[in-house]
Design brief:
Layout lengths: L1 H9 L3 H19 L7 E8 L5 E7 L3 E6 L16 H5 L2 E8 L6 E6 L6 H11 L4 E9 L5 E10 L6 H13 L3 H8 L2 H8 L18 E2 L5 H10 L2 H10 L3 E4 L6 E4 L1 H13 L1
Parallel strand pairs: 3-8
Antiparallel strand pairs: 1-2, 1-4, 2-3, 4-5, 6-7, 9-10
Helix pairs in contact: 1-2, 6-7, 8-10, 9-10
Length: 275
């Protein structure tokens, strides 16, 4: 549902839907892994491909939002018939920013492995967080171009894990079918869990400890946009009033538009001058 809402907002092509959808899914999962109530994170994929940039943010409540710089990007399918997400992003970097309520946010940055999102995040966890992990993400678009499923998983090895259990997990991940197929067959997270770990020995069968939701949430408002106008400074705001007499701001995430007339801009200028 998150990916479907993003597609409706940004009018994304099939390729852009897959690229943005994978990023939103990963951000949502990583957001739920944050400890503090107000903790937030951002995933920023920047490359030399036609998609240019994908950004997604999430918080510890599972609220996620994002955008892709070129929502209409299209490329030929890869030889295996899959959408070429890696080609859309190209060579570049992944930046992960975590705002944990400290003086400075944590920033981790790596060079992209493939631009396919999941492989890059697997490397990020290994390099920047020294956390052995396996990340898989999938967005399924049918022959009619309809979004039929989206999902993913992050599997991590915690300290003190049983070596036999780790080996069994590795076997399951190595031999599992493509996630894009599995999410379409599963229909829900519990069923996906059973499909991925169907060959796990009985003593290591997964147990569900908690279930949480991921949802689209932007949170932009007229007040925030007004603050953004004030932040551009007295000089630029005065010039805006003199030359245009109005301003229209569009939220990058939800595409909501906010119009400010001359009188409102004049009041905002007074606020800027009083600071």
């Amino acid at each position: 549902e998150v990916v479907r809402e993003a597609r409706q907002i940004h009018h994304t092509s099939n390729l852009a839907t897959a690229a943005l959808g994978r990023t939103l899914t990963a951000a949502g999962l990583m957001g739920l892994m944050l400890k503090g109530d107000g903790d937030k994170l951002s995933l920023i994929f920047k490359g030399d491909g036609p998609a240019a940039e994908i950004l997604a943010t999430a918080d510890s409540s599972g609220r996620v939002k994002g955008y892709i710089a070129d929502p209409g990007v299209e490329l030929p399918l890869k030889q295996n018939g899959h959408l070429d997400v890696g080609g859309a992003i190209g060579k570049g970097t992944l930046t992960v920013i975590k705002d944990l309520g400290l003086k400075e946010p944590y920033v981790g940055r790596i060079d992209l492995v493939s631009g396919e999102i999941a492989e890059d995040l697997t490397k990020y966890f290994a390099v920047s967080e020294q956390q052995p992990s396996s990340v898989a993400l999938g967005v399924r678009v049918d022959e009619k171009g309809e979004l039929s499923a989206a999902g993913g998983f992050i599997v991590q090895v915690l300290p003190g894990a049983d070596e036999k259990a780790v080996a069994a997990v590795e076997d399951c991940l190595f031999f599992m079918d493509a996630l894009t197929l599995l999410i379409g067959d599963a229909g829900n997270p519990r069923a996906l869990l059973r499909l991925i770990f169907k060959n796990m020995p009985d003593e290591y069968q997964p147990q569900v400890l908690e279930e949480r939701d991921i949802s689209w949430h932007c949170g932009c408002s007229r007040e925030r946009m007004a603050s953004a106008l004030v932040s551009i400074g007295k000089k630029d705001l005065a010039q805006l009033i003199e030359e245009d007499g109005q301003a229209e701001l569009t939220c990058q995430f939800c595409r909501a538009r906010y119009h400010f007339g001359r009188e409102e801009l004049t009041e905002l200028l007074k606020q800027a001058q009083s600071r």
